[in-house]
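pasting for the record
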Amino acid sequence: MKRSLSLAAIAAAGLLTLTACNSSGSGEEGGYVTAGKLTMCSDIPYEPFEYVEDGENVGFDIDLATAVATDLDLELEVITTPFEAIQSGTALESGQCDFVFSGMAITPERATKMDFSKPYLKDNLALMATKSSGISSIDELEGVEVGVQQATTGEAYAEEAGTVPVQFEDVGLLNQAIGSGQVDAAIANVSTIYSSTQANDELQLVEDFETGEVLGAAVKLGNTELMDSIESTMSGLRESGEYDSLVDEWFGDVADAARISDEEIEAFSLEG
């Protein structure tokens, strides 16, 4: 799924790295970016994975990350981070955060820049359009502008389908654009499109595409200690049934399509 860092952001990242090294050491040594806290980078808003409601960070990824922090007896701290910095590995490598939960698809390219957990959700891509547009298939959109979130698998798919991708930094801006008529259609993950159509009755899910996309949490390359903790928490959530309850809560009508089974997890590989 899913963006470039300004000079100010890069400078801030460098400062955070120095702070982390002076206070709590590197993740590879069992330390954390901020002592006593588990710091997560996430691209907010990206409903229903992470967004702000009544001043609080909420969503499926937030619930999963909170469970990891609780098991480690640490306080979860969430840093809103541009997706480009997340998916490129820059946020982890520079020490902005300890780990990532951000509705991020596991891809071979990304796996060279960070270590991924086992998949925790299926999330195929889909086409959303305004009901008034009359759009019924992606086949009608060759050469037509289609909204996408930049640096995502949705953007890549839109290019491959022959559309003209119009980039937006986050899903909030993408939803604003399609709601205001700036674009009539958008390609994104089916989970976020479901959320968008629930919030705006003028939008509809036109069709979904079997892209085989799965999502994973990520840590800096080599941080096996934290990854082991993430996997332990996720296994516990699945065994207790809480994982299923959270999928039902956050994904509604598309919960069964999003849920990933133990068998699918074990069968997953980047080579297909």
